[in-house]
Amino acid sequence: MTSAQISSAWEALESHNDQIVEVHMRDLFANDPNRFARFSAHLDDLLLDYSKNRVTEETLGLLMDLAATTGIEDWRRRMFAGDTINTSEDRAVLHAALRDPSGELTPSEASARAAGEIHRMRTLQTTIRNGGWTNIVHIGIGGSYLGPQMATAALAPYATGPHVHYVSNVDGTHLMELLAVFEPQTTFVIVASKTFTTDETMTNAKTAKAWLTSALGDQAVSQNFAAVTAERTAAEAFGILPGNVFEIWDWIGGRYSATSAIALPLALVIGMERFEDFLAGAHAMDAHFVAAPLQQNLPVILALIGVWNATFLGARSHAILPYGYRLRHLPRFLQQLEMESNGKNVTRNGVAVSGTTAPVIFGELGTDGQHTFYQLLHQGSDLVSCDFIAAAKSDNGLDNYHSKLLANFLAQSEALMLGRAAPTGEPHRNFPGNRPSNSIVVRRVNPRTLGMLVALYEHKVFVQGVIWGINSFDQWGVELGKEMSQRILPELTSVDTASGHDSSTNGLIDHLKRLREEDG
Ligand code: F6P
Questions:
Q1: First CA to last CA distance, the chain
Q2: Percent of the chain with pLDDT over 70
Q3: Which of 18-22, 141-145, 241-245, 357-361 has the lowest mean pLDDT?
Q4: Segment 387-400, tens digit of pLDDT
Q5: Which element (helix H / strand E) includes 81?
Q6: What phi, psi does 431 have (nearest 5°)?
Q7: pLDDT for 3
Q8: Residue 2: band (very low, low, confident or very high) from pLDDT cuts 50, 70, 90
């Protein structure tokens, strides 16, 4: 499509926005008893209700035109074919191959490699199950832990293996707290790092190695360690047995690795059969994303609604609100997925984007969030869009609790949409309403539905990246701070007064040094 066609699709939406600004969702609902049926879609057990957004059939039509003119279908074809769509890093983007054992959607070379690692994970699972291990410590950061951590919490009812503990931060407190109460003999450590160079991860890995070898001798590294990485040689040089090194490849982005061997601890804990159900759920969403017409395509719809809210209606924050303790880590997982992918101001072609891109993603469990930041959602001066997420059934058997949870889940999106006029003379009790939200419902949080949810958001982010014209698969924005911290590190122990920075950074370095020296 030409850039003129893309511009005219944007312009059509802009002028449509001028009309919709006057429309209140409560009137849209009052005028259309079928609005829920019209503006909801499902795949198996997963329902997406997007009716509580400021959209009409016309809005959706114009958004679909935008998607078509930006070439979504072609980009999707190219991604699944293994084309080098991550151009700034010269890489293909093939996370769909991780859950495509028969190569139905993705190149067979990639899917066969992924299936090979699953097979090897099964062997390790048997060793771990029979080996008397009680604790697994997974060391990784960013995409090398957020997905597995989120999924391990979500699927805790399916756990049959050892306990898994995730350590990410380069703050020794976390690791030391764990090691203080663990037995070296029964602790298995997984070092997950695509690059095997990330400072946080390698610092923690070396600490764990020292802890194990001082108790058990040098052979502990070969017995008590596994690695997941794209850098096999570096992992082996660390001392990890070749058979315990699991591979990912440059065509798996860190934040897109939740269904790769990076999720090894999840597989060890829930078992390979359940892990494969998780992959099958993601594959089902992949197949839907590839085949369903754009108008019925869940990731496409979710993406377009997100673009409408963030770029046209100006909702520069988006809340992820799971109603279910099991999904407590979903907001932070999606924070990385969306913000590291689409928090960009330069297009694929290297020119400044003309509008806005990813909103700020934040979130919290319902109902905790209701007692912290929902005030702003209902009455704040900014528009915040929301994804409410719930399961019809809980695994805790406490139906009285779950009914209350669901009543809150339903009430919040209804209140945000409807609003309520203030009693006379009490403007502080006015609820303007007309605040957009999606509701995502599954029957239960189980391996399959969780896999579907992960792939739903992965593809949502991809579609949005295409519409905004950005490369969703690189992350240059994280480099500068990393580099500068390497330069500052020796200055924190130097006897010289800091001088190589701005006065704030110099002043802070010296102040911290002084405090540390005073404290001995
Ligand atoms: O935060 C930057 C980043 O490169 C993420 O994209 C990635 O998930 C994380 O660091 C960890 O990287 P690695 O797996 O190489 O340790």
A1: 66
A2: 100
A3: 18-22
A4: 999 999 999 999 99
A5: helix 72-81
A6: -110, 110
A7: 78
A8: confident
Distance CA 102, CA 114 (A): 10
Kindly calculate the radius of gyration of the chain based on its CA atoms and give it in whole angstroms.
24
What pLDDT, on a 0 to 100 scale, did the predictor assign at position 90?
98
Is any ligand 1 atom within 6 A of the Cβ of residue 250? no
- Contact at 8 Å (CB) between 349 and 435? no
CB 247 within 8 A of CB 193: no
Shortest-distance Cα residue to atom 3 of ligand 1: 142
Is residue 5's pLDDT more than 90? no
- Banded pLDDT at 1 (limits 50, 70, 90): low
Q: Does the CB atom of residue 482 touch ligand 1 within 6 A? A: no
Could you give the C-alpha distances from 446 to 237, 253, 401, in angstroms and in order?
Answer: 38, 25, 19
* Residue identifier of the C-alpha nearest atom 1 of ligand 1: 142
Q: How far apart are CA 424 and CA 430, in angstroms?
A: 10
Nearest to 260 by CA among 273, 270, 269, 249: 249
Does residue 239 surpass a pLDDT of 70?
A: yes
Confirm or reject: Cβ of 193 under 6 Å from ligand 1: yes
Q: Supply the residue whose CA is at minimum distance from atom 2 of ligand 1.
A: 478
137: phi then psi, degrees, rounded to nearest 5: -110, 115
| Cβ 229 under 6 angstroms from ligand 1 | no
Interval 14-54: pLDDT, tens: 999 999 999 999 999 999 999 999 999 999 999 999 999 99
Buried b / exposed e across 252-273, counting CB within 10 Å, b at 16+? bbbbbbbbbbbbbbbbbbbbbe
Q: Which candidate in 11, 14, 273, 371 is catalytic?
A: 371
- Distance (Å, whole) CA 129 – CA 146: 24
The verdict on whether 393 is a catalytic residue reads: no
Q: How far apart are CA 340 and CA 223, in angstroms?
A: 35
The CB of 331 under 6 Å from ligand 1? The reply is: no
Per residue, what are the HEC states of 16-35?
Answer: HHHHHCCCCHHHHHHHCCCH
Cis peptide before 70 (omega within 30 of 0): no
* 428 labelled catalytic: no
Q: Tell how far the Cα of 441 is from the centroid of ligand 1, in angstroms.
A: 31
Q: Give residue 142 CA to ligand 1 midpoint distance, Å.
A: 5
257 Cα: distance to centroid of ligand 1 (angstroms): 10
Is residue 147 within 6 Å of ligand 1 at its C-beta? no
Residues in the chain: 520
Cα→Cα distances 196→59, 203, 206, Å: 46, 11, 12
Instruction: Judge if pTM exceeds 0.90.
Output: yes
Flag whether pLDDT at 202 surpasses 80. Answer: yes
